[in-house]
């Protein structure tokens, strides 16, 4: 029977295919006390080692398919497995209650999941699914049973599940899974993030629909709008088919722009590049016509390991990217850890407000040996390409001067040892703290460029955690305060002849493109998949008209008014 559902659009795209419902794996577990505690501990430890090996394999698979950043999900799973609150608690339960390992795993997992599911923060609530995922994997090894593998699908389907774990998602075959829909989840859930990375249309948060649907039923999924239609009418199927053809044609048309400049109809040329976390991510940027890398998140080189990368390891990673770009620029952000980026071996202190605490440049200026090693690697690699360097989380001029002082000391050492590097390497800073934005004209005298990190700039300016659904409505990229800060930063830099890029999510948002262009932004950097769409938008814009739009937007009184203005402007174009 035809039914229409509305969920949360989590990944763009449209698909029609028979439904395949993934049954939740729930192995029966009984509580047993007629066991040897020693034997149960041995079974648990063996299962933990098997799970670790499996997660490491999944990490490598995810890294190859979706890049280093998304693969970090499995690093987090390994950390859960090694956390005393998880593995330690399971072992303690076996000892304390003299129970079988299966029961101990299930008991501890249920307790932890319940704690996370009751948290107010949406992001933390979503982490309950990670604990479930790790627990199910560990339980299957304790029981010695095989998990259902989606890799065994034989024909195209729309996949439906209560939720998809990261390890379910990473093995999806794009040729067979045309889309997926889930009962739960939001835009920040791991399955949503990974769906976007894989390019699979997805709608999440549909409610308990998997209990009312039947496998084999035809389903249409619109990942742009969040609409899902079960058993559609012939007219609706025809409408969807036409939409699929239009989107496919648009994607094909975009490929023609791979080698074209990002220039407006009246001749203003800007740079459109990509963001990466490892050398492996560079291929996608080049395939989509990136004119450079506007953000190399170097912190990912430090993750999923037990000690910091050596100077040689870092040098080779930076050299590979610089050489691969063949003269095009790469902006390497120095180590940005702390906040939500935990690296256990750095042993950063626990803090009440980590986002306002000991992180990024603050850590580097305090642990100069760590900082110097990275700077040496970046400088050495600069001999092999067009590398630029920028410091994150700058809040005042003193931090810039101290960072540059360390940089000069490293340069002097390289010169003494006759090690070549680019003597003219440009040095910039991230603008992500309101204080730095307001003082942009002062800071511009100290550096060669700015890169605006909109994700943090918006959160700090609006005092809003974007992952907290209770206040997420305050995360407003188009708030006049944000637009005025961006304008202030650009004007402050241009006044001193410096260029300004943007590497936050706003840079890849097509709604923002005409405003940012009109405000005078020089460089846009984003996920590889967004490059051609933004380039196409820029090539269809008049810089003069974009300037007028931006000027009007700055005078609006609210985000809603700005969005209405942009919508009306597009209608007239």
What's the layout of helices and strands?
Layout: E1 3-6, E2 8-11, E3 14-21, H1 37-66, H2 68-82, H3 84-97, H4 101-117, H5 122-126, H6 128-143, E4 157-161, H7 166-170, E5 177-182, H8 190-198, E6 202-204, E7 218-222, E8 227-230, H9 234-255, E9 262-263, E10 269-276, H10 282-287, E11 293-297, H11 311-324, E12 329-333, H12 361-366, H13 368-381, E13 386-391, H14 397-416, E14 427-431, H15 434-438, H16 440-443, E15 449-452, H17 454-462, H18 480-494, E16 499-502, H19 513-519, E17 523-526, H20 531-539, H21 543-554, H22 559-572
Parallel strand pairs: 3-4, 4-5, 5-6, 10-11, 10-17, 11-12, 12-13, 13-14, 14-15, 15-16, 16-17
Antiparallel strand pairs: 1-8, 2-6, 3-7, 7-8, 9-10
Name the features:
single chain; 573 residues; alpha/beta; eight-stranded mixed beta sheet; eight-stranded parallel beta barrel; 22 helices; 17 strands; globular; PEP-util_enz_mobile_dom; EC 2.7.3.9; metal-binding; sugar transport
Write a brief caption for the model.
The chain is an alpha/beta fold and 573 residues long. The chain is built from 22 helices and 17 strands.
